[in-house]
Design goal:
This protein has about 375 residues and is α/β, with parallel strands linked by helices. The chain folds into two domains: about 190 residues, no CATH class; about 170 residues, Rossmann fold. It has 13 helices and 16 strands. The strands form four sheets. A six-stranded parallel β-sheet has the order 8-7-6-9-10-11. Strands 2-3-1-4-5 form a five-stranded mixed β-sheet, with helices on both faces. It has a three-stranded antiparallel β-sheet with strand order 13-12-14. Helix 5 links the parallel strand 4 and strand 5. Helix 6 packs across helix 11. It is globular.
Length: about 375
């Protein structure tokens, strides 16, 4: 098979390391951290059975043993060196295209330097991540009895590659849009571009809690190392599509807020009798959209740098969406904090949100 792919992953916390190396649980955390910093990239598993009506492919996961904290705290050059080494391992495994997962897709210049150092194509998967996140969000909004056009929509991490293209797409569909990020000058530039392109005047903020508290719908794509959204930040009935890995939404939201809907963005069903031979917490035959983009391009024999850097285009999102449909990729239902969310659960969330909103409005009267 000459259309193989690879996908680079990294642990989101030490529990991911322990899932692979269970004996390390007994070791002091300081020892585990010191060891995995020095570990070379590893071939974590072989992926088989990815097939559509038009083609088939296989690939592998390549692991970079750095946690988010390490990626943010050690020099960027060292992190890039490890990711490039992982890409070289993908080359040796016969891959013709490699995808960058989680923070490996955002560190440095978002894949450009990595692609320059490899002899195979590179993609971050962000185009298909955007497509699936928006599709899932729109479905969730309808199920919660809202109309997206009239919702207060906020994008957390709006100046990143995923956030900015989400903002540009949604600016054509909504009346009220807020952009949230740390860099105010970049926020102002994005807001000006949107105003020029669509005529929509958007709000900007670098205060996460304040901006999120007003939103009916939040798309969270910050790429921060820590959670940014806490239970007290959200209004009853809020819908959050958390695309970020590590998460932007605290797990305390799931524990304490039964009146908000948090969904994981970009979870798709992969066509074929797929076996990832690796446990990343998903049901069989499902994967992140960023992983799926790499598979889609391999099935299409498109061995090119498809999504790189911090500038995504609406054209790229539309193109990968069409290719995904062609090969049979589709949304895999709703998940929240690694658990499936049924339509009945969403109905109960909506009922509780409606009750609390009525109580709040009554109290203000």
């Amino acid at each position: 098979m000459n259309n193989k792919f690879a996908f680079i992953i990294h642990p989101l916390d030490l529990n991911d390391i322990f899932r692979k190396y269970s004996f390390m649980r007994r070791w002091p955390r300081s020892l585990v951290n010191a060891l995995i910093k020095k570990m070379p990239p590893i071939k974590a598993s072989t992926i088989t059975g990815v097939s559509s009506l038009y083609n088939q492919t296989e690939g592998c996961f390549i692991g970079v043993t750095l946690t988010p904290e390490m990626i943010y705290n050690i020099p960027t050059e060292q992190v890039l060196h490890k990711i490039i080494a992982a890409g070289k391992l993908a080359e040796k495994a016969g891959a013709k295209i490699v995808g960058l997962g989680a923070l490996t897709a955002v560190i440095g210049d978002a894949g450009i330097t990595i692609a320059r150092e490899l002899n195979i194509a590179v993609t971050t998967g962000n185009s298909y991540t955007v497509a699936t996140a928006l599709e899932g969000t729109k479905q969730a909004v309808k199920l919660m009895g809202k109309e997206l056009e009239n919702c207060e929509v906020a994008i957390l991490g709006a100046t990143g590659s995923i956030g900015s293209v989400c903002a540009r797409i949604l600016s054509r569909e909504v009346k009220y849009l807020s952009l949230i990020a740390r860099n105010e000058s970049r926020l102002e530039g994005l807001a000006r571009n949107i105003l020029n392109d669509t005529g929509l005047a958007v709000k900007i903020s670098n205060n996460v809690a304040r901006a999120v508290s007003c939103a009916d719908v939040i798309i969270a794509v910050s790429g921060a190392a820590e959670c940014l959204i806490s239970p007290e930040d959200l209004k009853p009935g809020a819908i959050v599509c958390d695309v970020a890995r590590p998460r932007d939404v605290s797990t305390k939201v799931a524990e304490t807020r039964d009146d908000v809907l948090v969904i994981e963005g970009g979870i798709v069903e992969v066509p074929g009798d797929v076996n990832f031979n690796f446990d990343f917490g998903f049901p069989p035959r499902t994967a992140y959209a960023c992983m799926a983009e790499t598979m889609i391009l391999a099935l299409e024999n498109r061995f090119e740098n498809f999504t790189l850097g911090r500038e995504l285009t609406v054209k790229q999102v539309d193109e990968i969406s069409l290719l995904a449909k062609k090969h049979g990729f589709r949304l895999a239902g709703f998940r929240s904090f690694e658990r499936p969310v049924s339509l009945e659960t969403i109905k109960r969330i909506k009922e509780r949100a409606d009750m609390r909103l009525k109580a709040l409005n009554k109290g203000r009267a």
